[in-house]
Amino acid sequence: MIEMGPDCLSLEESKKGFEIDISWVDEAVSGRACVFGNLDSIRVLQNGTREELRGEIRRQMGVGLRHGRFVMSLGSPVTPLTPISRVADFILITRQESARIKTRERL
User: Fold this and answer.
1) pTM score, whole prediction
2) How far apart are CA 92 and CA 2, in angstroms?
3) Between 76 and which of 15, 41, 84, 95 could a Cys-Cys bridge form, CB atoms 3.0 to 4.6 Å apart?
């Protein structure tokens, strides 16, 4: 896929009997395209704890730092059972982690 020269690459989260490791994807792409995160919209966003959500956002954003072309994203649409407060948490935590990374880069 990357040989076709896309600007970005977005892949589903791991489920349905297959695994998509965002770290492997980022390494395979090696900065040749922007990689979108694939946070699990059911296990983490809908059903996970706030700490699990923060941990997965932090992990994926850390992966994205290696090549610098990364957007934190979900691997599937937000489900109807996901409380709107969880979507707000996702946005807030992503912004907090982004600010933390930017502050660390300035040091």
Assistant:
1) 0.89
2) 31
3) 41
